[in-house]
Amino acid sequence: MREVDGIDHDIDTFCKLCETCLPIKPAVVRQRCRRIGRKADGMTRPLLISLSSESSAAELLQCVPLLRQSPDAEGIHINADLRPAEALAAFQARERRSAESESTSMARSVTNSASSTVVFQACSSVFPKETATCT
Question: Quick one: pLDDT at residue 92?
Answer without folding.
Answer: 92
